[in-house]
Amino acid sequence: MTQPVIIRRALSLAAHGVPALPLRAGKVPFGNCPACAKNACGGRPNMKTPGPCTCPHPCHGWAAATTDPRVINSPAWRRAWREAAGVAYHPGGAGLTVVDLDNAEAITWARTSLPATRIVPTTRGEHWLYRGAMRGANAVRPGVDIKSTMAYARWLGPGIGTMTTLPDVVRALTAKEPATTRPVAVTIPSPGGGGACPHRTPTYLDRGIAMAEQRITEAQGEVHATVYRTFLAVLSTHGRCGCLTDAHTARLFAAAQAKGESPRHCTDAWTNALTTLGLSHV
After folding, report:
1. Structure pTM?
2. Which tens digit of pLDDT belongs to each residue from 263-276?
3. DSSP-assigned states of every residue in 118-168
4. Which among 247, 251, 108, 268 is positioned nearest to 177, based on CA atoms?
């Protein structure tokens, strides 16, 4: 890809409100300049907002992303563009979240667990783009990263399909379990429900429960957090329509206990997930 093409692409993204930055070979941003090495300059304010650095170079990774054409066309940035292999963007700065699916197994999971949205093919998998920003995180499940605030993604084209609103099931992937401050009886709380069921067939629910069991069973570390996030994901998808039964929750509890979780923790995690989603009184 030639320099003029790369710069035109960055300027086009900026014109559409998408903060852009140059990307080196290997899909990584340019390193900080000598004045900013190891954040000697103090970095950006709390590293929470993108925009031009006080120095003229594209420093501080994702935080360098900008929609200012004067910065993109500045001499310092043009030197970086001459060495650039592509263009990256800051999804959170554009109000977007990218679910980065790195392999075929991750894509299969997304197709059975996430609402349809715009899809961008990648070298090894797909980017699923949703409207709405959230905290980014890596390895939220095997082969799946979340790129939004304080993160960058490689620009690979606009993709196909209609972009939809960021769903709770994606937000749940990075959620941490809140501390339990009161005793909870060792029973399986009901998610309630009673609303219209949006799922086309019972197979959709059964597949989701089976994948949730698998996610818990395959956890290699942070089992406690994985159990909570899995419960949260299941409830965010199926907790409002009343289609979950005691048999479904018993399967999830059994998978968690097989990984060493106590019945008490299973109940606490389930109750905390209900509370987080506002389902505790449904």
Report:
1. 0.68
2. 888 888 888 888 88
3. EEEE-SSSEEEEEES--B-EEEEETTEEEEBBB--EE-----BS--EEPPH
4. 268
